[in-house]
Amino acid sequence: PREAPSDVKAYSISSSEIRVTWKLSNPGPGKPRGYEVSYWKEAEQEESGEKRRTVKNETAMVLTGLEGNSIYLITVKGFNSIGQGPASAAVTAKTRKSPPAQPPSNLMWIQEGNNISLSWDPVKAKDNESDVIGYMVLLKQEGRGHIQVTRTINPSTMLSLPEGGTYIIEVHALSEGGEGAFSSQIRVVTSSGKLKAG
């Protein structure tokens, strides 16, 4: 390929992932068969970075396994059976801060019929962690694959248990950097609509 890919853009989608997009080089002699994306941390040399190739002539890639709260430089070049084309100008993107390490704690629940009202202590992000934007509550019935997921902005929610059985409830914080650590599990046993704490 004679020309570098154009309009390279990179933006963070979590604490460990950056999405890179670009436009095809002009078709013509030396058309690219695929693209190679190089990326390295700002404080490091390009030679120490990593390279990933697209499967085909794709014009987007998600880089994974990156460090949180870090600036990366990224270039894209086309390649074909003859060799590599020139690299695009480097673009930068900063990964988001990591999710909070602290899980939701002090889970409390009250049962009313088949409903459970659940609350917990809010998770506070540290300076080097990304802010909490909500919580995800997982309700699963033991012995069944099905998991019911409830999202809430507040540190509380109502859950309804559809039938008798043993249920496991877990909560984790959601942040811009991804999902935080899980709370300890609550086990709730219901028998035909009656509840006893497990």
Automatic annotation (TrEMBL):
CDD domains: FN3 (cd00063). SUPFAM superfamilies: Fibronectin type III (SSF49265). It comes from the Eukaryota. Pfam families: fn3 (PF00041). Coiled coil: none annotated. Residues 4-98, 103-193 form the Fibronectin type-III domain. Keywords: Repeat. PANTHER family: INACTIVE TYROSINE-PROTEIN KINASE 7, TITIN. This is Contactin-5.
